[in-house]
């Protein structure tokens, strides 16, 4: 059962799904009081996260299940925000190894994770017992999109 | 109700050894393979300069940016040049966030490049 103010979407691992989901997330964010720019940032983070699920979680296999929920959150000491959860049932990954390339190592891929982290206040990947991954992203109203400093740090 | 998202359309105009590729719509995981194929076809003609007109592109994700990085590498291997023109603010911000605004030559418009 969908709670008031919450968004629940079920989609498949097919790239043609992405424009519809982006539009739905953008519209829902705007209805929740986010500015047009912030709603666009949220939709971009969702798009990048879903693209990663399609490419890496499901290795581009079509028709695989993905669940997305979004809800407003209120955390003490923070401005109001939202939480988006994306659940897949594909290949698991070690959360510590999910990172983009160094930004000064310029090559075609490895940018999606940076974009997600730039658009959102917090990003957490969790392997789910039994299979698949859960991505939990939060954004607070005072968050400004910016690339996190670790994107330029060489380990 | 969400509006129907814009499909990507691509037009290519060749002027001597300069090609202008004009995009309209959204560039994402669905449409970036189409963009890549068109740009690879253009590269086969060994243009001196490739201008990618993004003035009508309201959305681009990392798959589109990655495609342009790949094409830049390839054209420079043949001593050619790629210029991105007319980026809308939200598309430009993706290049800024990924620090690729310093990697690409970015012009305000195709006309600005043509005046050189």
Explain what the structure shows.
Chain A is α+β, with helices and mostly antiparallel strands. Chain A has a single domain, classed as 2-Layer Sandwich (Heat Shock Protein 90). Chain A has helices at 18-31, 36-57, 112-119, and strands at residues 7-12, 65-73, 81-88, 122-127, 133-140. Chain A has a 5-stranded antiparallel beta sheet, covered by helices on one side. In chain A, β4 (122-127) and β5 form a beta hairpin. In chain A, α1 (18-31) packs antiparallel against α2 and α2 runs antiparallel to α3. Chain A is globular, with a radius of gyration of 15 Å. The mean pLDDT of chain A is 90. The mean pLDDT of chain B is 92. Chain B is globular. A 5-stranded mixed beta sheet of chain B has the order 1-2-3-4-5. Chain B is α/β, with parallel strands linked by helices and 116 residues long. Helix content of chain B is 37%, strand content 32%. In chain B, β1 and β2 (18-27) form a beta hairpin. Chain B has helices at residues 32-44, 62-77, 89-97, 110-114; strands at residues 9-15, 18-27, 49-60, 81-85, 105-107.
List keywords for this structure.
A: 155 residues, alpha+beta, Heat Shock Protein 90, 5-stranded antiparallel beta sheet, 5 strands, globular, B: 116 residues, alpha/beta
Which SSEs are present, and which pair or pack?
The complex is a heterodimer of chains A (about 160) and B (about 120).
Chain A: E1 7-12, H1 18-31, H2 36-57, E2 65-73, E3 81-88, H3 112-119, E4 122-127, E5 133-140
Antiparallel strand pairs in A: 1-2, 2-3, 3-5, 4-5
Chain B: E1 9-15, E2 18-27, H1 32-44, E3 49-60, H2 62-77, E4 81-85, H3 89-97, E5 105-107, H4 110-114
Parallel strand pairs in B: 2-3, 3-4, 4-5
Antiparallel strand pairs in B: 1-2
Helix pairs in contact in B: 1-2
């Amino acid at each position: 059962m969908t709670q008031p103010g919450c968004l629940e979407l079920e989609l498949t691992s097919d790239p043609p799904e992405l424009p519809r989901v982006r539009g739905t997330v953008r519209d829902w964010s705007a209805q929740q009081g986010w500015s047009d720019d912030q709603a666009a940032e949220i939709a971009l983070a969702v798009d990048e996260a879903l693209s990663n699920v399609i490419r890496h979680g499901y290795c581009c296999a079509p028709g695989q299940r993905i669940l997305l929920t979004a809800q407003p959150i209120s955390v003490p000491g923070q401005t109001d925000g939202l939480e988006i959860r994306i659940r897949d049932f594909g290949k698991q990954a070690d959360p510590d190894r999910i990172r983009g390339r160094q930004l000064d190592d310029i090559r075609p891929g490895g940018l999606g994770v940076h974009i997600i982290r730039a658009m959102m206040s917090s990003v957490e990947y969790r392997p789910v017992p039994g299979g698949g991954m859960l991505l939990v992203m939060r954004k607070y109203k005072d968050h400004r999109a910016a690339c996190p400093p670790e994107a330029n740090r060489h380990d | 109700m969400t509006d129907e998202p814009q499909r990507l359309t691509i037009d290519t105009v060749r002027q001597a050894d300069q090609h202008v590729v004009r995009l309209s719509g959204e560039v994402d995981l669905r449409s970036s393979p189409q963009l890549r194929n068109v740009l690879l076809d253009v590269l086969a003609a060994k243009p001196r300069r490739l201008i990618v007109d993004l003035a009508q592109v309201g959305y681009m994700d990392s798959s589109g940016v990655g495609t342009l990085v790949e094409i830049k590498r390839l054209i420079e291997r043949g001593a050619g040049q790629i210029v991105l023109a007319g980026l809308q603010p939200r598309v430009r911000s993706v290049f800024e966030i990924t620090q690729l605004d310093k990697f690409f030559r970015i012009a305000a418009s195709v006309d600005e490049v043509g005046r050189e």
